[in-house]
Amino acid sequence: MNYRTCFLDSLRGLVGGVTGIGLVGWLAHASHLPLLMAPFGATCVLLFAAPDAPLAQPRNVVIGHLVSAAVGLLVYHWLGDGVTAMALGVGLAIMAMQLMGVVHPPAGANPLVIMMAPQVPGVDFLLTPVASGAVVLVVVAWVINNPGRARRWPVYWWRA
């Protein structure tokens, strides 16, 4: 699959990435909540450079991030933060996303984010930053990806 695109689509990628991460970052600053995490940068690549891909649909973005982060938290509380735990966390997150039909590659990094954090997050991490940040990015993608496109984004919201 070739992702080389026209200038307008690449401009949409620029505006989408800046707007998505900028808005999440601004909300984090304004609310004093940790809403931003590195995998959201890769999520933006899918949302704005490959919006028609199944991996870039809202269901995959939001639920994929939540599932992967939940697995990361469970593995951390079970095994700690060593290399074995990190490897198992990523592997189990991939398996869980596949079994649930919500594969989102950037979410595969969530167990590593959790286990490499200076202070390991609690269950509230699932709401802030995971769910809230993913939802904001999906809303931004819905706004940015639709004007002027012959096709509409998302291709689907919740179907498998």
Automatic annotation (TrEMBL):
InterPro entries, A to Z: HPP (IPR007065), TM_HPP (IPR058581)
PANTHER family linked to this entry: TRANSMEMBRANE PROTEIN DDB_G0269096-RELATED
Pfam families linked to this entry: TM_HPP
UniProt keywords, alphabetically: Membrane, Transmembrane, Transmembrane helix
Protein name: HPP family protein
Membrane-spanning parts: 7-27, 62-79, 85-104, 125-144
Domain HPP transmembrane region, chain residue ranges per copy: 8-154
Coiled-coil parts of chain: none
Domain of life: Bacteria
